[in-house]
Amino acid sequence: MSARPTRPFAWRLGFAFLVGMFAATTGAAGTEWRAVRGTGDLGLIVERTKGRILIIETTRRTVLKRLGGFGDLSHASAVFSRDQRYAYIFGRDGGLTKVDLVAGRIVKRVMQAGNSIGGAISQDGRLVAVSNYKPGGVRVFDAETLALVADIPARDSDGKPSKVVGLVDAPGQRFVFSLYDAGEIWIADFAGRTQPKITRFRDIGTLPYDGLITPDGRAYVAGLFGEDGLAKLDLWYPEKGVARILAGYGRGEKKLPVYKMPHLEGWAAADGKLFLPAIGRHEVLVVDARSWKQVGHIKVHGQPIFAVARPDGRQIWVNFAHPRNDTLQVIDVATMKIVKVFKPGKAILHMEFTPRGEQVWVSVRDADRVDVYDTRTFERLTTIRAEKPSGIFLSARAHKTGL
Question: What's residue 34's pLDDT?
Fold first, then answer.
C-alpha cells in the first residue's frame, strides 16, 4: 500500500489558523456576541440615566450587549465612522467616547470639556468635532486616536466667550456651527490643512439655539430663540452672506408657552418640501424646499418636537412635547393627512428608521422600553427593555440627532 501524500506545511498551518478563527468566533465563550457580522445592521440605544448604551442589531431586533462607562448621557448624540464599525458618543459632561460596535467595547474615552452639546465627523472620516457650552468653542480630534487636532475658542468681537450649538459636517471637509451668545455662524474649513480657516458671519440673529444642514449639504440653517425667523447660509455661495427666511417661524406676536424647543435636525425633507415643527403651536409647517417659503401647515396633537421622514419620503412621523408626549402621529405626505395615531406611553423621545424604512424604533422613556413598529402595517413587532431610553442611532442611517 502506498503512503498517503504529505500535505505541505504551509497548507497545514493555514488550515489550523482557519480552525482557530472558527473556534474563536463560534465557541461557547461568546457564541452570540463574537459571531462575524456586518456593521450596517448595528446601532445603539442610549440609556440616559445609567451612563450606558445598548448595542443592537435590526434584522432580528435584539440587544447584543449593554455597555457602561459613558458618564452623563442626559443629552447624548452619536456619529459613526465611515466603515460604520465605530461610534463616537458625545456626552453632556464633555466626554467623547469611541466605541467598537463589532467588538462591543470602549476603545477610548476623553474628557474634553465641561459641558458639551453634540458633535460631527468630517467628510473624509478622519476628524471628529465636538461643540461645547463650557468653556465654549469647538474641539477637533483625530478619529483614530482621539488626539486633539485643533481647539477653536468661540468668542464674539469683544472677546466674550459663547456657547456653541448646531455643529454639523459639511462637504469640502468643513464644520459649520452657531454661537448662541454672540449671534454668529462660523465655518471651520479643514480642507488640505490641520488648522482650520475660520470664516465668521456676524449679526445673523438673536440667540441661535440649534442648526441643521439640508440633506444635499448645501444650506445651513440656524434657529433663533430670541426672535422669529431663521438664518440661512448657502454653502455653495457663502460669500453672499446669511439670509433671513421664514419670518413668521417662531412664537409670533402673541408669545406662547414653549415646553421644549424643537431640534432643527428633527426636520423632515420629502417630496420637494420641508416639514418642520412650529414653535409653541400645535402644527407642522410645510415649506417649499427651493424657495424656503411656507406653503401650508398640518394641525397635530401637540407641540411637535421631531418630524422625521421615512426613508422613502412617503410618511412623516411626529412626536410631541410635555405634557402631550404620550402620542405619535403619522402624516401621509401625498395627502397631507394624519393616517395613524399611536399612544405608546409617556415621554416619546426619539424615532429612528431602519435604512430601508420598513421598521421604526421608538423610545418610550417613562415606560423603560423601546418599541419597534412595522411602518406599512403599523403593527408593533417587538419591545426591548431599556432604562430611560432616549436617543436611538443606527449605523447605516448615521442619524445625528440627540436628546
Answer: 56
What is the Cα–Cα distance from 18 to 347, expressed in whole angstroms? 49
pLDDT band at 35; cut points 50, 70, 90: low
DSSP, collapsed to helix, strand or coil, labels residue 8 as coil
231-262: pLDDT as tens digits: 999 999 999 999 999 987 875 555 666 767 67
Judge contact between 247 and 227, C-beta under 8 A.
Answer: no
Coil/strand/helix, residue 122: coil
The x, y and z cell numbers of residue 147, run together, are 488626539
DSSP assignment, residue 161? B
Distance in angstroms (rounded) separating the CA atoms of residues 295 and 285: 8
Residues with Cβ < 8 Å from 30, sequence gap 6 or more? none
Model pTM score = 0.88
Query: What distances in angstroms separate CA 110 from CA 48, 64, 142, 154, 373, one per listed residue?
Result: 19, 25, 12, 21, 36
| Peptide bond between residue 323 and the one before it cis (omega within 30 degrees of 0) | yes
H or E element in which residue 57 lies: strand 52-57
pLDDT for residue 33: 52
> Cell digits for 224?
433663533
Helix (H, G, I), strand (E, B) or coil at 62: strand
20: left (phi over 0), alpha (psi -120 to 50) or beta: alpha
β partners of residue 371: 362, 383
Q: Which whole number is the average pLDDT over 76-87?
A: 95
- Tell me, rounded to whole angstroms, the distance of Cα 139 from its chain centroid: 18
